[in-house]
Amino acid sequence: MRIDALTVFGFKSFGERVRLEFLGGINAVIGPNGSGKSNVVEAIRWVTHTARARELRAQNSAELIFHGSSGRSPLGMAEVELELSGVQAPELPARLNIARRVYRDGDSEQELLGRPVRARDVQAALRGSGLGVGGLAVIGQGEVSSVVSADTRTLAGYLEEAAGLSKLTHRRTQTLERLDEAHRHLESVRLIESELAARVVALEVEAAQARRHAELSARRALLESALAAHRQQGLKDEIARLTEQETRLSQASVACAAELQRTQAELETVRAALVAAGVQDAEYRRAAGLAEAARARLEAAESLCARLRADRARLEEELASLQVEPPRAERPDLAAQSAALREARARCADLEARATRSERALREAEAARAAAAQRQAAQDARAAARLAEQTRLQALIGEARQALEALEGRLAPLREGTATLEAELASKLQGFETARGEAARLRAEAARLEAAHAPLERERARLEAALNAYARYGEGPRNALRSGLPGIIGSVADTLSVPAEHEVAVTAALGRRLEQVVVEDAETARAVIAHLKRTGGRATFLPLDLIRPRIRRDAALQREHGVIGYASDLVPSDPAIISQHLLGDTLLVESDDVAVRLARRYAARPRMVSRAGEVLEASGALTGGRLRDAGVSVLAEQRRLQELEDELGRLEAALARARSDLEAAAARARDLEAALPDLRACHARAEADLRAAEREAAALQSRLETLTAQLAGSPPEQPADARAEAVTDPARLEAELTELRRQLEAARAAERDQQEAAASARAAQLLWERYDEARARADRVRSRLAALEADLARQSADLEAARAERDAREADLAAHARPEVAPLEARRGELETRYADLTAQLGTLRADLDHARLSRARREAALEALPEVEAVALEGEPRAWQAELARTERDLHALGPINNRAEADFLIESERLAALRRDLSDAQRSADELLEAVGGLERLVSEQLEAAYGRVRRAFHAHAAELCGNGDLEAVRSEDGRLVGLRLAVQPREKRTRSLHLLSAGERTMVGLAFLFSLAEAPEGGGGLPLAILDEVDAPLDEANIRRFAGFLKLLAGRGTQFILVTHQKATMEIADALWGVTTDARGVSRTFSIRAEEAAGLVG
């Protein structure tokens, strides 16, 4: 046998169909590491069913399929086809095709000669060829050295396979198994034979009893016939009376039944109409509910759009009202203005003081001048004049002091009022700035809250729509929950309130039961099931009137460390029975370690689930792993929706508070801003009054000082010349005073100008402050307007969608007319009452009829029990017949139960027993003959195996001497001397060790190859190694051993052995008749190319 071709498609790295054709000599498969060379050998092992997926570097058969690469998509199947020739089995043709396929879903198939077969058929066809189970034709990487360490029975199996005895051995084993089965069957047949013999004896006794019973029964029949003739006439009369009564009752019953049937038909029609009306009414209510919801959504959308438009109009009005143009006046320098005003005031005060002194000097000069003029005329009246002057001065001083005191009394309240007004103005300004800052802060806070509210509202609407659509549910629960039929409460997930820390545990504990539909009663469940039959899908329902709580309370368990509690207590539901029914027997624990510990400690344990989602059933089954749609489950979405609604509630409350506070702050700012001009005017008037009073007080003080000085400084009398020299020129003083007064008026005018400039500067500063605030507010308003425009555009689109949905829902509602149910229910009540009355009447009639029929039947039965004879020739009276009949009955009763078929059964079972004994004898004789034939076959196999052992032993001795040193193949025999195993004994050259475990990898490889090559001599005449597939067996060999290995390959190839080698060694490549190169293209797919030795020589030449 040889391999002609191998076709591979989709197997491991072969993403495209590849065909490798092999010659009869040495074929080498070469290529770089990872290119897929070994996949060629593994494909042969896989198609011949000599290796499982795990032995081919895969976890399962689906992993053998090409997984795809960067330039090639994955395939859905893997296929390998092997073409063999030179097949020498008589039941098979000379050429043999074997194919095997595996699909991504795990399904597989195999073909032999183009026909689907079982795996055992392929193995049977290849048995004895080396490619079958237990053959050494295919040796993978590192397996050649494992041959050396194989057990003795495995080595003997290799010898049987190479000698062509494996088929005989397999058939002998099958025959012995069948013989064992036949012996067991014979034992059961013998047991049946013994039981049948006992039954035949029992039937013989029963047949005798049956004959006696027949005699007594005949006499009893004669007596009963005589007595029956006596009673016959009375029974006939009673039957006639009862027949007449039955006819009358039957007619009445038929009439009542017809009326009842008509009433029932009408009642069913009314009920059907009520059901249809109920369905129509439910559809109407559903349509009305949807229309109302659509109208509510439309009103909400219109309200939101209106609010947005109002906000936009308000902001546009506010933007239009803001002063966004800068003031015409330049931004003033208040510090410079204040300094100039203080300087002008200081100059005025200085000039006023100088004018007062000059005026005093002028008056003194005029007085001195008058005194000098009068001194010559009225020397005597000087003293009196001086006294009058002093009196006048004192009077003036008193008046000045009184005026000054009155003025000072008026100045104190003016100063206090001015200070109060200044403090109030400062307080108002500070309050205005605080209110304006608070309003700005509150506007920013409101804008932030509004900006945060919009995405949360959209997220809430998305989650609510997804949950209401039940998108994550299966088809059946989704259609049931969306049907709108009355009586549906919701899904299990809708009724549960699951804390966030228990979501994973509850999801794992309930699984798909979260989608089960909770309904009010069983009738609702049946109605929804009928709906699902029309729309599609299948669902599980929990009727509240049928389900029961499954609560268990294990106090000892709940006190254990790591136990959290029963899930029904931790996860409430509405209604509560849902949680008690589904989770009442589920215990929540911290981890799977706790669950396993409790399961080992408590035999009567509940179902347990850990926080991480591992479930330990009460039966002991443990479930775990990654949950489906972990973190994005229905419970998580429900919790997120509740959190969003709570957060939206908090945001809306905070937004309402912020808007209220903003309105209050804006009102305070407006009130303060409105009060500031009046307060500034009052402050300015108070300052002006205070400055006027201060100037008047300064003038009075100056005058008082002058008068005091005049009073204290009256000069003594001097000579005329001296006094004339002391008098200052009044004209000069008056000119100086006039100049000082002119300068004082100019300074006061400059002070007034500075005051007006300071007031203008303060007004301009206020205008600039208002301009800055308006410009900042305008920027904020424009930003808010842009956001409002975007929100308004989105809400307008939502409004149009809501309006379209409202129109569609209203059109749908208009298409559903609400049925009139009350008349139908009233008619149903009438018909049900009529039906009950008719049923009772019919029951009474039928009871009477049944009683009449029963009486008649009893009479007829009694009549029929009597023999149909007119007269019986029997001596005696009926009383004597009755006594004899009683004695006969007692005799029959004493016989007991009688087998009337005993006579026939006795004959049948006797014949069956004889036939069974003949079959047992034949079967035993056949089994003995077959056992003798198996013994002859076993002796033949043993003889041929001994002959093959001798040939292989001699060949191994020779090959070991050539390849690795001294070697021998030792036989392991059973107690009766049969060969049952082989043992390799090798001593490498120049070494004393004979332990195979101490050999190097190369030495073990050479020993294994020596044994493999020796198997070629197993059959008589050679040919025990028709083909060999070796995967890099020369990898651990040095150059010298490779040359020896190559020499043996050429030798055996010359004797007809076909070799398929996977190698990296140049020396091995050189002896190959054909080379198959395996490489990987840019897409990561294995590709092949071939070249024959003569072609290579031609290319070199």
Automatic annotation (TrEMBL):
Residues 213-252, 291-466, 627-812 form a coiled coil. This is Chromosome partition protein Smc. GO terms for cellular component: chromosome; cytoplasm. HAMAP family: Smc_prok. It is found in: Cytoplasm. The gene is smc. GO terms for molecular function: ATP binding; ATP hydrolysis activity; DNA binding. Contains large globular domains required for ATP hydrolysis at each terminus and a third globular domain forming a flexible hinge near the middle of the molecule. These domains are separated by coiled-coil structures.
